[in-house]
Amino acid sequence: MAENFETESRKLLGRLRDTMAGEEAGQARLDKITHLIADSIGCEVCSIYLFRDEDTLELCATEGLNPESVHQTRMKLGEGLVGRVAKRRVVINTADAPGSKGFRFMPETGEEIFSSFLGVPVQRLGEALGVLVVQSKDARLFSPDEVYALEVVAMVLAEMTELGAFVGEGAAMSARHSQPTMLRGTVAQEGVAEGHIWLHEPRVVVTNPIADDPHRELERLEEAVEELRVGVDKMLEMAGDGEQRQVLEAYRMFANSKGWMRRMQEDISRGLSAEAAVEKEQSVARARMETVTDSYLRERLSDLDDLSNRMLRILTGQGADTGAEMPVDPILVARNIGPAELLDYGRGLKGIILEAGSVGSHAAIVARALAIPLIVHVGRITTEALNGDQVMVDGEQGIVHLRPDDSVVTAFRDKIAMEAEAQHRYASIRDKRAETKCGNIIELNMNAGLMADLPSLENSGAEGVGLFRTELQFLVRSQMPKRSELSALYGRVLDAAPDKRVIFRTLDIGSDKVLPYMKPNDEPNPALGWRAIRVGLDKPGILRMQLQALIRAAAGRPLTLMFPFVAQYEEYTQARAEVDKALAGEAKLGHVLPASVEVGAMLETPSLGFAPRKFFEDVDFLSIGGNDLKQFFFAADRENERVRRRYDTLNVSFLSFLEQIVERCNDTNTPVSFCGEDAGRPVEALCLTAIGLRSLSMRPASIGPIKSLLRRSNLQDVRKVIMDARHRGDMSVRPAVMDYLRQQN
Ligand code: PEP
Ligand code: MG
């Protein structure tokens, strides 16, 4: 019986291929296909619904329903049975369609006389393209074999759609990947850029979804799996312990997985080519990935996705290293990317667009260090964009203009020109001080963490490095760096900043920053968990090694360091004792000690703002880590898109708290700086200085605009605006300050 089905299925696929090869226009092809499918499955109706736009499906061809309704009948995603198949990407198989949940009657189609309904999604690599439906009068459930057959056909339809087989006269379909498209995402690094798409993972195009020699295809599949296994085993031999090994082990598990192989073999026996079979299973996995919430399962599905890509490259001979040349103005597109891979691309990239990713990810940190505009959470970008497509990245609004039309191009270029003009203005004040109209001098430092940041020290006009995030060096490696490597690196950082102060922050790991080669801790709430200085004090091995590396790197020069996430006085004294111990130990070993050592603390938890006066007297300096301080002040996760923006930094409560900290520091003559992201935002920077801060540290690209604004500002006036707003009981001082700025032009 099964054999019969397989023969039937192959016969149908063979006919579909003939229609592909024929001369017909797109619509004629669609019509013919519905006829062939209805005939082969033996039912009265076969219809193809394709997406007209992102959330509207259109009946594009039918055998059996009223022909007048073709290109007339439309439904929203999720509407009716067809809409539900598309939305949930699941098969709906029912003997009683009108009695089914969600059924919507479409009178123009004449479908009321058909009782049974089988709808399968037409999808390709996680992207829904449409729905394929068969219906019949008799009330019967379609058999598993019939469902399977229809799924195989749907796969072929997806490939044909991708190849543009249904484009042309009379058809409602326009060619894919040719229309201007605007996509929205979340800004992870500001800036505007124009360029051409460079896909991190090139799309593999399956040009032959149907094959007539299943034996040959099965052999090809076996050969590809073997090549894959050998490759993975080789990588495993070379891999160290840790996450990379885990991923490879998972790959090996899939490569040896009987279930995965069996499904692909079955797809092939029904007429698909080996590559189409791999892609079919990959599409199913992608669709599941979107609905699965269990993080372990999601990761495994993502491993399977990676593995399928490798298989496709083996089978089609297409890959990262074949053919396409990187454009001169590349805008990188990826589902996600690791920090090390991003560093490999380096500064050559004009912009980065990620389908997944997150604002606080390591890749985002690297993009920031390289000052490359980055937008994350851009749905559909990897399926919409093709290598070489023109694209404009608006990293202010979080918008991607893919294949923009002329009017967008013109408007966007104006925007870029304005930006360039502003940069030119900032360059002219690079060597001037940030002196306000009222005579206050504000120290402007930059944040850094990679060697790639250091050229900015010169270009931006920063007075020094107010925050060097040492964890980045740990995060971009696959193994724990050695002390000698770290000391050489810190030495180079100091070499690149002669006569400038660099504040090294000791390792801030834990929370979202998990070292790839350290056992992850399964904590219920990592942001409030075992992180930063807590790890450093409980397991001092790495902290000691890092302190030694810093002392050796200073080699007689001044050394400034600070500890992250200090929540109480004792943590500071304990950490400082580690510094003293390290200095004594290094002296014993005969190393030259730094000319001077300053030891500060980051104020990132509200508790430290209320520490005893003695703490403020003891500490050499304080640096307010506004990113963390704000998340703990408002109890709103900085990584959670739902709440991240809910509370304004310029909220009067937060500003009052900051002001109290500054007052306490002034009382004890403790130098204090602010190094969270807000320091680099104009209105925020203005308010921070108006409440008394005299030192800010920010990303290098912000120094020009902030300096330019401060030089034109009178902090006393701004302070009065803030006071008045507080007095009135405003929730945030932002509207009042914005009004004031508007009046000032
Ligand atoms: C901060 O919390 O404000 C800070 C500067 O540290 P990070 O962003 O690295 O946590
Ligand atoms: Mg922090």
Structure commentary:
By secondary structure, the chain is α/β, with parallel strands linked by helices. The chain has four domains: 2-162, Beta-Lactamase; 181-202 and 322-419, Glucose Oxidase, domain 1; 214-316, PtsI, HPr-binding domain (Enzyme I, Chain A, domain 2, Orthogonal Bundle), CATH 1.10.274.10; 435-743, TIM Barrel. The chain has 27 helices and 23 strands. Strands 15, 16, 17, 18, 19, 20, 21, 22 and 23 form a nine-stranded mixed β-sheet that branches. α8 runs antiparallel to α9, α10 runs parallel beside α11 (362-369) and α13 (406-428) crosses α25 (700-711). The longest helix has 25 residues, at 214-238. The chain is elongated, with a radius of gyration of 31 Å.
